[in-house]
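chain below, 368 aa
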Amino acid sequence: MRIMLITDAWEPQVNGVVRTMKRVIAECEEMGHEWEVVSPADDFLTMPLPTYSEIQLALFARNKISERFESFQPDAVHIATEGTLGLAGRAMCLKEKHPFSTSYHTRFPEYVSARFPVPTSWGYSYVRWFHKYSGKVMVATPSMREELEEHGFNNVVSWTRGVDVDLFHPSRRIGEGEPGDPFEGLPRPIFLNVGRVAVEKNIEAFAELDLPGTKVIVGEGPQLQELKRRYPEVKFLGAKFNEELAACFASADVFCFPSLTDTFGLVILEAMATGTPVAAYNAPGPRDIIPGSNAGIIDDDLEKACKACLDLDRTVTRTYAEGYSWRSCAEAFIENLDPLPVPERKRFWQKIRLRRRKKKYPPDTKAG
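prediction:
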């Protein structure tokens, strides 16, 4: 298929949405599918998101999206985010009467409420409206699907995630005092958090835990300087990528995931793939991945969960993560798309081409 992806989240952003979609695209291309990615990086007029300047919002994008839509002639359109580009793509699809699918990567109402004085009920009214005409709303876990259905969604399907088990591997573990130790000189055990350093990630809950050893945070974001001032005993290493990141995951003793707004938490699988067990709250994402795995602990008492993870078997943790495949994730994505039915595609694009010709070569008019 020819697939158009419209997303407000893309490089240079570093987050789960971007990493997930880039890996899905790579897997789908190997399967023979062709992609057109529309993102804020594509020469749109943009403005920074208030309180989060790293995220750019594309403005007045609808005409450009329509041009690319008509040029690429996709079989399916997927809208990954609810931002300004997502809104423009949604409006275009509704105008052209072309089906589209969407995905729900972040608990959007909770995310907005954490940043602005906006009730979550307003946020749910918005996302219900945004996803109302989506053929399928893809969510990462069964519990997220149930939660959205309780909020009035009726077109939700499950779409799990994968992990790169070659990059995130136990062989990346560097022992205390060995050359290249990412936590050199820090008291052990190491309790690690990786991700965007932002208010919606609830990192304070991790920073305030009374744990032995050292709490380490890897990542950047708008809350970084504030947290550094508030928690001088926490070690902040900044952003890490690829092998360096994998070494941090593998060399930690426990990975702590305090977020309550993520719908999955890709970093959970990345930590597990290196053999590092995961402690988390009983929230969507962790509650779908961790219980029964022997690869982590969920508990409303995060400190208790972190300490209990110290006794888990790293080999069992790695084996569990191996069950998550990016190819399966990509196949599920393709299955969940809502393409224009084959019999209608030819007529649809003939109509679009005819309309373009009329715009380019308007009929002559006679003076009355």
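Residues 31 and 331 are 9 Å apart (CA to CA). Residues 342-360 form the longest helix (19 residues).
thats it, cya
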